[in-house]
Amino acid sequence: MSERVVIVGYGMAGSRLAAELHARDGDRKVTVLGAEPHRAYNRIMLSTLLAGKIAEPDVELAEVAGQGVDVRTGVAVTAIDRANRVVRTDDGDGHRYDHLVLATGSRALVPPLPGLDPLPERVVPFRTLDDCRRILAAAQGARSALVLGGGLLGLEAARGLAARGLAVTVVHATGWLMERQLDPAAGAVLAGTLEGLGVRTVLAVPATGVAADGSGVRLDLADGRSLTADLLVLSCGVRPDTTLAAAAGLAVERGVVVDDRMRTSDRRISAIGDCVQHDGTLTGLVAPAWAQARVLAQVLTGDDPLARYRPRPVVTRLKAAGIDLAAMGDAVDGPAPDGPPVEELTFADPARGTYARLRIRDERLTGAILLGDNPAVGTVVQLFDRGAPVPADRRSLLLGRAFGTVPAAPAASPALMPDAATVCQCNDVSKGALVACWRSGARTVEALSGATRAGTGCGGCRDALAGIVDWLAGAEPAEATR
Ligand SMILES: Cc1cc2nc3c(=O)[nH]c(=O)nc-3n(C[C@H](O)[C@H](O)[C@H](O)COP(=O)(O)OP(=O)(O)OC[C@H]3O[C@@H](n4cnc5c(N)ncnc54)[C@H](O)[C@@H]3O)c2cc1C
Fold this sequence. Notes:
Blueprint: E1 3-8, H1 12-22, E2 28-34, H2 46-50, E3 69-73, E4 77-81, E5 86-89, E6 94-96, E7 99-102, E8 106-108, E9 123-125, H3 129-139, E10 144-148, H4 152-163, E11 167-172, H5 184-196, E12 199-203, E13 207-213, E14 216-221, E15 226-229, E16 231-234, E17 238-240, H6 243-247, E18 256-258, E19 269-271, E20 276-278, H7 286-301, E21 315-317, E22 325-329, E23 342-349, E24 354-361, E25 364-371, H8 377-386, H9 395-399, E26 422-424, E27 429-430, H10 431-439, H11 445-452, H12 462-474, H13 477-481
Parallel strand pairs: 1-2, 1-7, 2-3, 7-19, 9-16, 10-11, 10-16, 11-12, 18-20
Antiparallel strand pairs: 4-5, 5-6, 8-17, 13-14, 14-15, 21-22, 22-25, 23-24, 24-25, 26-27
Flavin-adenine dinucleotide (FAD) binds near residues 36 and 319.
């Protein structure tokens, strides 16, 4: 009898695992059970959808149903019966498994404030396509919006709503924006940039309560002020959805505990994506979720029984029109307690919305913040990602341009990128892999993207992909086909 694999969660991790299994040979029946009523979609692109830059069909992920993959949407798993290897669903059904995969993702946190239980109509978290639809419906005809939470997603939502013409105010309890990725100086420059784009920020003050009715929302603050608007978006963080795993008695800490092969404490159950805790760490990003899906597919199919998940350095980018921001590594950490001394370089030009900070240890970048137009951003990300040595004169990285006799960092030139350089962070696709696909006939961005999946995550590498296509198309035949 063929092996039965049941995947709980038809989000970015679950759908990728189904596609990875589908692409490999073997006698197995894959069932995907997804609580959301839609086909799997690219959750990352909801910010871009909110900003009106794309339409709903653009966020749909490739269909995986058919040929051994059975996808059920609008079906929530309510319990795991480990003894009988069955999952129960809210439509009264049961699904037997030989191997079960939890890909249940995260849930948006709703802060325990008076006035938020139940959630009023004009108050919406920002996690799902339905949330996005509700925010857009509330924004229709609205003139103002409040966003509670000045982290990455809150700012993306705020920028998106401002782009739709709403007057937006972001309220953040900490003294500066995106405090997990930015230092106070970068946060201040970012607040200035946002102000110029129609987003006001109210910092260092917690919210104490919400009152909402059909005509609008009032947000009360700890300093006695009250802000009013037509809608309120909650962006107060996410929490791994571990409900099922915990109820089934699996090892759960902050997330579902997994090893390098994505196995939980039950050898017949694996977990991937936002819901997992690997080596004490939660990720909350798509690149690790997709890397975990690949490793698990290799392990489950026997393609590579020795496959192991190895976390890679994370680069955070803000997807908001008019703001260029990349942050990575330990840029916000204090002095390192031991080991080689840390070299810190900063450059700030708040009037131009520019800020750069590099942290270098042992001639390697351990962290960086680049805000504003800095052409060296590609080079900085590459150096950080590969742990490669930084140039002797760091000013070209910090300033992103030629400085005196120091040449500009060779950011944009694909010709100068090493083959090992990662072009698509979400799918871990290197320049070398793209060149190999070109040689085998993929001659457009779409063809390269179809062959390697590069550019199908956050889309931040699509300009780099186009640059590589242009370079290969214009390169000497010997160079392009070498
Ligand atoms: C607006 C926004 C922007 C983002 N931008 C970025 C970005 O730029 N870069 C980045 O790397 N990451 C970004 N993220 C995070 C990224 O989307 C997540 O890391 C990614 O979606 C994780 O995939 P997942 O499959 O683990 O979880 P999800 O995509 O959340 O999918 C989990 C699915 O499981 C379903 N589920 C849960 N419980 C059950 C159950 N009991 N039965 C059936 N189904 C169940 C849920 O309904 C959901 O559909 C962003 C997230 C949001 C919301």
